[in-house]
Design a protein that fits this description.
Helices cover 85% and strands 0% of the residues. It has 67 residues and is an all-alpha fold.
Length: 67
């Protein structure tokens, strides 16, 4: 199971890198930050209200992309 999760995270990080390369001054840093945020949102969705977690993730992502 751990291997599947690691492979998926590598793939998703690659997707984020490609998307972030479109003009962000630090695309690698942003991609890794977004990956960690997504990981936290997945865990938070099991622990807290999913709607609250999704809203927090959306707001945080918007702030990062605006920075």
């Amino acid at each position: 199971m751990r291997r599947c999760v690691a492979e998926h995270r590598r793939w998703f990080l690659g997707v984020l890198r490609e998307a972030d390369a479109a003009g962000h001054p630090e695309p690698e840093d942003l991609a890794r930050t977004l990956l960690v945020l997504r990981d936290g949102a997945v865990a938070g969705g099991y622990l807290d209200d999913l709607g609250d977690v999704a809203e927090t993730l959306r707001k945080t992502t918007e702030r990062l992309l605006d920075a």
